[in-house]
Design a protein that fits this description.
The chain has eight helices and 20 strands. It is α+β, with helices and mostly antiparallel strands. The strands form two sheets. The protein has a 16-stranded mixed beta sheet that branches. Strands 12-11-14-17 form a four-stranded antiparallel beta sheet, with no helix packed on it. Strand 5, helix 6 and strand 6 form a beta-alpha-beta unit. The longest helix is centred in the N-terminal third of the chain and has 14 residues. The radius of gyration is 20 Å and the shape is globular. Pfam families: DUF3604.
């Protein structure tokens, strides 16, 4: 849809948006779906987990750009656009200056904060300010929940950036991992930042980054990052550089399981890695391993682990065949310990033997076996199909 036609819809959709987000309305109990028509939001999955209590599902897009760096869009329209697209949590993360490419100025950083504050509606819609630290070889890192920003002038390398994030108390994530050739010094581990490095993008725009760089001889970014010792959750983002923030269907999103839809609620969920990556709007994924939700630790060295997975996308996907792939550490690509056939709209339970001697992490990948992965890995790998979602990892701690 063109910017003009979609903006015309936005201008007349205020009442519908208020209905969709008002506590107690029917739409408030379901997740939003990215459509290019008027924002009717009743076709996504219910927000309540079928297997866990105490949290609610909110869909987030934590990586977006505007005219304040290398985007095309007016930042004053971004938060409204993301809310109209069915998102519950949205962030602007314009680039810090990259060499000769102008990025955020101090006045623009201040303006981003003002726009986020104006759009933020605690309990209904969370608007965040962040920035993207940008190095042409090392990679790009998003940073949220800081009162200031840094660029290559102040933080020219990974060590200086990690020190800055640690001192400012923010949280951060590795962006489009594998795209820049040095890959954060090949994800060299920094123990001091483990708790604040909360995310690894698995879906960016429409791309699945599981095997990004494989065709040119690189290892899987997921495998390399987690094997290095990082305890990142897994995210999906739009990384919008145009004017269609939140649109169209098929771009990355992050499903956040939070106690409340506020800045503090989202921050707590991100610190707990209580979220999943998806590139399908309106999707609900909740999962436990031995009773522990995604993002948590499993305190044992070896044994059979019972997984319970809640997977739904509302009426449109009921009965859709999907695969649950159990990813474990490999040398260059994740090993697949099991592939479980399931379908959308149901709770699936299965048991997999895990051994800490084989590696400390386990991830569930939800895939559509009828479509191919546009960025495949090793020949014959089970994950050479179309990725729908990734849970955040669990970690074996004994």
């Amino acid at each position: 849809m063109t910017e003009l036609s979609r903006r015309s819809l936005l201008a007349g959709s205020g009442a519908l948006l208020m209905l969709a987000s008002s506590p107690g309305s029917a739409e408030a109990t379901t997740t939003g779906v990215a459509t290019s028509a008027a924002p009717t939001r009743a076709t996504g999955a219910a927000r309540a987990s079928a297997i866990s209590q105490g949290t609610t599902l909110f869909h987030a897009d934590l990586h977006n750009h505007t005219l304040m760096s290398d985007g095309d869009g007016d930042p004053a329209k971004a938060y409204e656009s993301m809310r109209s697209a069915g998102l519950d949590v949205a962030a602007l993360t314009d680039h810090a200056t990259l060499l000769s490419i102008n990025g955020l100025s101090q006045s623009e950083w201040t303006r981003t904060g003002q726009l986020a504050d104006a759009a933020d509606n605690p309990g209904i819609y969370t608007a965040l300010r962040g920035f993207e630290w940008t190095h042409p070889l090392l990679g790009h890192v998003n940073v949220w929940y800081t009162g200031a920003f840094t660029d290559l002038g102040g933080s020219p390398g990974m060590a200086r950036l990690y020190d800055w994030i640690s001192r400012t108390g923010g949280i951060s994530g590795f962006n489009h991992p594998g795209r820049e050739i040095l890959r954060f010094n090949d994800f060299a581990y920094n123990a001091a930042l483990r708790e604040q490095m909360v995310g690894l993008e698995m879906f960016n725009r429409g791309d699945d980054y599981l095997f990004d760089g494989w065709s040119s001889g690189q290892s899987s970014p997921l495998n390399t990052c987690l094997n290095a010792g990082w305890r990142t959750g897994l995210t999906g983002v739009t990384d919008e550089h145009g004017t269609e923030w939140g649109y169209p269907e098929g771009k990355g999103r992050t499903g956040v399981w939070a106690v409340e839809n506020t800045r503090n609620g989202v921050l707590a969920a991100m610190r707990e890695r209580r979220f999943f990556a998806t590139r399908v709007s309106g999707l609900r994924v909740d999962a436990t391993a031995a009773g522990v939700r995604m993002g948590g630790s499993l305190p044992f060295a070896k044994g059979d682990v019972r997984f319970v997975v809640d997977l739904d996308r509302g009426p449109e996907w009921v009965g859709k065949p999907l695969h649950l792939q159990v990813l474990r550490p490999g040398s260059r690509a994740p090993e697949v310990a099991d592939v479980v056939e399931t379908e959308a709209g149901r709770v699936t339970e299965f048991t997999v033997p895990l051994d800490a001697a084989d590696g400390s992490w386990v991830v569930l990948r939800i895939a559509d076996p009828s479509q191919a992965n546009a960025s495949p890995g090793p020949s014959g790998h089970p994950c050479n199909d179309w990725g729908v979602a990734y849970t955040s990892p669990w970690w074996l701690t004994m």
